Sequence to fold (687 residues):
Amino acid sequence: MSDRQSSNAYWQANLKIIYVCIAIWALVSYGFAIILRPLLSGIKIGGTDLGFWFAQQGSILVFIVLIFFYAARMNKLDRDHGVDE
Amino acid sequence: MSQFTLNLIFIGLSFALYIGIAIWARAGSTSEFYAANRGVSPVMNGMATAADWMSAASFISMAGLIAFTGYDNSTFLMGWTGGYVLLAMLLAPYLRKFGKFTVPEFIGDRFYSGTARIIGVICLLIISITYVIGQMTGVGVTFSRYLEVSNSTGLWIGAALVFCYAVLGGMKGITYTQVAQYIVLIIAYTIPAVFIALQLTGHVLPQTGLFGSLNGSDTKFLTTLDQVVTDLGFKSYTGHHGSTFNMVLFTLALMIGTAGLPHVIIRFFTVPKVSDARKSAGWALVFIALLYTVAPAVGSMSRFNLTTTMWPGAATGETFSQPAVSLDSIQNDPEKEWMRNWQVTGLLDWEDKNGDGLIQYYNDGGESEALAAVVTEQNLQGNELTTVNRDIMVLANPEIANLPGWVIAIVAAGGLAAALSTAAGLLLAISGAVSHDLVKGAINPNISEKGELLAARISMAVSILVATFLGLNPPGFAAQTVALAFGLAASSIFPVLMMGIFSKRINKQGAIAGMLAGILSTLLYIFTYKGWFFIAGTNMLEDTAANWLFGISPASFGVIGALINFGVAYVVSNATEEPPAHVQDLVESIRVPRGAGDAQAH
Fold:
């Protein structure tokens, strides 16, 4: 990916949205649900703590939101750059 | 009406529906056979993808995996859903734009190499065949349990059904039967879950019931469950007991493995537009989440029900306030008939070791003061519920909760739908690789459209026979789906596709070297601990955490294999010449959506 990096603004904008989404994707699953769970254990929810909720339910819901967010942002980007179908 | 008749009616009706769809959705061209003529709406494709994805393991085993391990097995929940985020952003839209029929075809074109394509075919075949054996055995087991036929008869009936719609309809027939199968399996999964959530917590939604309070009590359900299982010497349900490092690594291996599974990727070739491929991944995850967010509730609540059956006092959280269930009750009470039914199958068994007429269920090596006192006082000689197969958590769930017979019949039809829909998707990936990548791509490039369609149907028929044969005589690797199929998908297919899209610099040499390094390192690591080609006794090191390299479990190694693949491909590509101009143009073209509609005339 190093040389001949696509200079195309559309592609760069796409990559930027992907970076943001992937960061959130990793934060909720690997972060909140696993690594950061001890830090969040003070936040109680339904007989357990926030990390457990993220591990068994929350991260899946965030994943769904992320995909629809990405799809919507990309539709707009496609139109703005005149590459929509 | 007897339970057998009910099962027969529900399974028969669902099969009649699938056959009706098969007759309606016959394929007349290769485009219909491989990609349903790219005319499937994003929502429909999402539903079909959900059925394609959710296998016998998701339907039957996953709740049980969570039930007996609790929080630590959340890896499966996150791992088997998080891959769709990667698919939606990193693979599906660009591969749809590429507009061809198979995953190896993209690898071959992008890396301008027949060798790369063949390596892709080999990976696809290992992954999909490992995976399909589990589905075929699942069909056999479900049939034999609910329709009182032998395992092999059940398998042949299932194979004949898949034959009808897969050979006739290809991707088109499979897509619409998968939509129907999704509806059957989600109803089958949800109904017992709602009943049980209502009984225990008063919540209609199992998702909120999991975090609610027990009926008639202020104590949260999960608090009571933790209390009861730790009383019996088991590890707490919500606690984290394993290694954090491996939990992260295993989840990541499942996620990138999911995104690299060929039978899932090809589903996104069936939608009309690139934007539909993105949206469709979202819908797929919505439909998958309807089962995956219910599974933890099913798992925890059925574990609670099982425990309160064994220790009636556990219902209020005071485990030892009443004596354990009596042998007499298990053998004679009508509401414990399910225990006797499942004892016959060998999935459940008990033995009154100390001869006190009670069956005490607990963890032998467990550390619990309350338990230690009971063990001494009642002179216990060991756990007396000697076998509890985790699959019962879903299969016996309706019976444990005393639900009506038709619910049990629906669960039977749902289990079959889950196994059959995944099997059909895998068989399509296999037969496409054989007829399109091997026959047309390598052996006879001049084959006519009609000739290729015939080749596709023949390879589908042969694939079904091979899968049925392997289902009847499962080889050693069949049980290693998670390590082998996900490991290879993560270490070979996912990286090579991603580099093919996101880099213009990775060339033929880099891709081939990367794939080989990824696959071979992953196989070597798995074989070191699981035995060469999974032959027992040939493993070089014992499969225990202490022996693992840096504590990495063989099932998580796909992540390391992927890193090796990326690294080798990068180094080799930079040491050799850059890809030709037409390949760089191809990469430019798949990065923009416009023109995807034309790509189908191919």
